[in-house]
Amino acid sequence: MSTETGGPPETPLAAMKRASAALFAIVGDQERSTAERSVARDDLVQLHLPLVEHCARRFRNRGEPYEDLVQVGTIGLIKAVDRFDTDRGVEFSTYATPTIIGEIKRHFRDKGWAIRVPRRLQELRMQISATTAELNQSLGRSPTPSELAEAIGCPVEEVIEGIESSNAYSTLSLDAGDSSEDGGALTMLDTMGVDDAGLEHVELRESLKPLLEQLPAREKNILMLRFFKNMTQSQIAAEVGVSQMHVSRLLNKTLEHLREALAES
Fold it and tell me: Which of 121, 157, 229, 254 is the most exposed place for a label (fewest CB within 10 A)?
């Protein structure tokens, strides 16, 4: 959809924010009928279900069916919709995310579960750990999921699943404490659902592959060096013969383009 002023097409995220604001306006309009406000409330929940699904995916491989986590997270979404104050100037997704995640964590706490990992994934986790150590020495860098898959002899999707299970693996109960650097105690529930930077890096590398083919040669080369060869910006600058600052600008610009492409895919 183009803007009325003839500007660039409206992004899916911008369209969703616009629709969300319009629906919240209806929900908060006391002059509207109860039926109208109820329909708008239901539409808001449907509109933001992808946020629930995103939050639920953070708890994969914790021993609970994904569909159940989505249902529990939806309860948190409904609570967020009912409590959201549009006058506070906060994005709804920013407000709703902690509520959704809190509802999912409460679900685990109420069931008193420990984090359980299937035996198949435990064995794969050990294979990945041993193979990673070997490839680190032979390659002189961290192996990519594709390289691990080839060495182990399994699909790359299974390697990524094994890496995810490594993050989930623990024999501690969800409320067992773990000492933090500042001396405070963190429970497993405190850390569940927190984005893992290493895992995001793995997922990004695999998701980028088809999109890289559409990039200009220079940008493609820089991203390959960064995400597939794990080189630092300084190393990339020396490799391609430009300044580190120029590499940083190119990476930021190209990654922004790729983020938009990933969001729309």
Answer: 157
